[in-house]
Specification:
Helices cover 68% and strands 0% of the residues.
């Protein structure tokens, strides 16, 4: 597992894209609180575990990145929001 450690960051853009895709395909507009709840807890767990358990920390980093991707989708949707005729 440690000999593949240099390749782990290559998975993070995939997780960001997956989070944005999950946001865009959701039937209802998620609230900011829901998106923050999807992003902050995995980020905190990742920060605690990154030195002790790198394999588990990778999982939480991917979850945090998918939450960040969903937040990026929400920000983009808010920036291009326009009145609907």
């Amino acid at each position: 597992m440690n000999d593949q450690a240099l390749r782990w960051p290559l998975l993070l853009p995939l997780a960001l894209t997956a989070g944005a895709a999950i946001y865009m395909t959701s039937p209802d507009e998620p609230a900011w609180a829901v998106l923050a709840a999807a992003f902050l807890p995995p980020l905190i767990v990742w920060a605690v575990l990154r030195r002790r358990r790198p394999g588990v920390a990778l999982l939480f980093a991917l979850l945090a990145c998918s939450g960040a991707g969903a937040i990026a989708g929400k920000v983009r949707a808010e920036l291009v929001a326009a009145p609907i005729l």
